[in-house]
Amino acid sequence: MRRLRNLKIVATLGPASSDYKTIRALTEAGADVFRLNMSHGSHPEIIARHEIIRQVERDTGRPIGILADLQGPKIRCGEFADGPYDLTVGQKFRFDLDKTPGDATRVCLPHPEIFQALEAGTRLLINDGKVCVNVDSFGDDFAECTVTVGGEISNRKGVNVPDVVLPVAALSDKDRDDLEFVCTLGVDWLALSFVQRPEDVLEARELAGTRAAIISKIEKPAAVDAYPEILAVSDGIMVARGDLGVELPVWKVPPIQKQLVRGARKAAKPVIVATQMLESMITSPVPTRAEVSDVAAAIYEGADAVMLSAESAAGDFPIEAVTTMNNVAIEVEADPTYRQVIEASRTKPEGTVADGIVAAAREIAETSDIKTICCFSQSGSTVTKVSREKPRVPIIALTAKLGTARRLALTWGAHTVVVEEVTRFKMAVIAAVRAARGEGFATKDDHVLVIAGVPFNQEGSTNILRVSPCDDTLIFASEPN
What we know:
The protein folds into 3 domains: 8-72 and 169-337, Phosphoenolpyruvate-binding domains (TIM Barrel, Alpha-Beta Barrel); 85-160, PK beta-barrel domain-like (M1 Pyruvate Kinase, Domain 3, Beta Barrel), CATH 2.40.33.10; 353-475, Pyruvate Kinase, Chain: A, domain 1, CATH 3.40.1380. 37% of the residues lie in helices and 22% in strands. The chain has 18 helices and 21 strands. The strands form 4 sheets. Strands 1-2-3-12-13-14-15-16 form an 8-stranded parallel β-barrel, surrounded by 6 helices. It has a 6-stranded mixed β-sheet with strand order 6-5-9-8-7-11, with no helix packed on it. The protein is elongated, with a radius of gyration of 24 Å. The protein starts with 7 loop residues before the first strand and ends in a 6-residue tail after the last helix.
């Protein structure tokens, strides 16, 4: 199951991909992490998919990451007596708290907190931005608006408020229930929707504890503005381009994507680029040229992972979609321009021993005949630092913790291997050489570079680097007591 590329692929599971045969095929085609979308699927369905993933993991012998994507609060208008209705430019329209069914002039917006946050001129985007109104006047229970972009409005359509920070928690009651459910079930990552401020992330972290790592979905203008603070308290980032493209002019999304990816790379935290990457493959066995270029652009930017949503969850060609992403990544990473772009965007190491060691490891590996960098890590932080360097040689991530191995399935270039716990550096070297040869990264005539921390089994103790031969004396060595 060794990948021929460094990029990781996240595939969403759903009605089109819920059985063992399909999930196994998706894994073999290139999926490294599976996303469980908590907006769809009952808890029993999520349990069944989770168990199948773990069975595939056992059968293939490769750690697989599982990401649970929380729904977040959904802001929707109420229902109409008749309809749908077509709103025309210049027309007046009112939102209020009156639960009486709406008509062509008004409808209930059952979210009093929104009225508290409004300002004159605030835009309300309805039905994924297909309809836009501007607020003229407002009170505690109403907003009088003028339609600036006409279109159809009907029951329970979504409402986006891009211009203000809403006093709405990122976690709804459903999200809190789902969070506890998936953490108890045993997922590796939690994707947090509707993030506007770092406090939203801290609330989720308090509830999750150490049971799952937190990915913040950047999908609102407020999150873009507060990105440095949100990144600092997150374990990873998702560039959720769908909602970003609704709440911001679509031409602003590409530069924002680049800024978010570079920021996450500098912080040595995994970043996923998501939404509509191979959208046409929901119904077509081949993508458009523009979609392939979009996936390639994310790879050139240095993203850790790209994600499939409906393409793998509900589409007609889920395996073909994963195969396409796999092939695009292999081709891009073989392009000399890719190395030029990646290396030109490399940031200066931070002033710590661990950062200095991983930077030196990359330099040594690339200027000598080193076949792979072998990293021992308790938490995975050493591996993510090596990944930030984007070395030209493979990265083997060795850990005694299966949970760490699963989380590292999302990290660029990390080939994870679960090993027995080691207590001495000689044991680490032996384990590294055995992994490198056993996984096909090196032969007996090669050398590998080993990074570890002494004393062992302490997080954040990376302080030693050694070049080791891979000869049979180490493969067949007796591990010291």
